Amino acid sequence: MTAGPMAAGPITTLAVVHAGLGSPSSTQLLATRLAEATQNEVARRQAPDLEVRSVHLRDVARDIADNLVTGFPSARLREVVESVTGADAVIAVTPTFNASYSGLFKSFVDVLEPGSLAGKPVLIGATGGTERHSLVLDHALRPLFAYLRTIVVPTGVYAASSDWGAEGLPGRIDRAAGELADLLVGRAAPTPTPASASIEDFVPFDQLLAGR
Amino acid sequence: MSSILLISGGPSPTARTGVVVSHVDGLLREAGYGVRTLHVRQLPTLPLLTEDLRDPEIGDAVAAVLRADGIVVASPVYRAAYSGLVKALLDMLPKKALRGRVILPLATGGSQGFLVAMDYALNPLLAGKGADSVLRGEFVLDSDIDGGTIAPKAAEAIRGAVDRFTPAVEEARFRRERTRLRPAG
Fold first, then answer.
1. Which of B48, B80, B84 sits opposite A147 (nearest CB)?
2. Residues B38, B89: Cα–Cα separation, whole Å
């Protein structure tokens, strides 16, 4: 298998794993958007094209549960697991249930060999009904992927129902995709610019303190 | 008599979490409690992992939770968190389903380092489902479970946890009955 980003020669692969349940599924939609944005960002960096492999965990739910009991995967699940562990980078998206990842998502992680994702760049995403659960990324997903010793990009993308079609989400998707693309093409991330407060907004201290 | 539900999130009844659960089951029966054990893995897989509440067995499991005065939630620690099976079952409960029920968390894991998994992963999950009475649980090391037997010290700790649990369950049931019997107005 590949030793790391760009080590496999001309083909760089991106595994997109999502645990959406519905059809259509907002989780699947977010996964697709993140994958497209990552392809665009990689192209912008003049790197070779990405090969994207999508994994819909619902399709292998039974195989995952059987694997938990038997200790080994079915042929179909083995193929899925290998497409994820063999990829150069992973995008992982889960619906938010009870302020955490779904049982299906966690069960898939439970059947992955510990260490099989070590060192891999990962972009985490989650969808939910309300923005109240956006910390699912930093309280549930990030610790999980830290345990797996992956390199999780700084921007995670949470999409509440109200985020779709609203301002903000496309920008977060592009920023996260850019961070993943930087890891994929082996380039250091650009010097960050503050997300808000440009230099024109600068208020001198004497003015800030004037009202005191 | 209070009704107690044991939820086992292990991969099989003979795996370590299952051994702990059957040990607790024995202790509770000895003390005269009516106990039901729910092995999450034995629920129909596809409806469980895809949240299909129309399945009769799933509906029955959810109803069992809603009837219980006390619930033991036992999970193996996988990837420094609760197992996906435990998560799948808890996700299917209605909002605030655990309110007013006494919860005893139990976990099994390979290293003492995973002790915090209970505080950082399992407890917020229980709180999210409205649990307002989560007792101090027990963490049992995998190496203290050999086949079907539990090392004496660990068994003693489990007995201690059960001794904390049963009076709290009685009290919770008493509070619920009192609310029900109180005249309206």
1. B80
2. 10
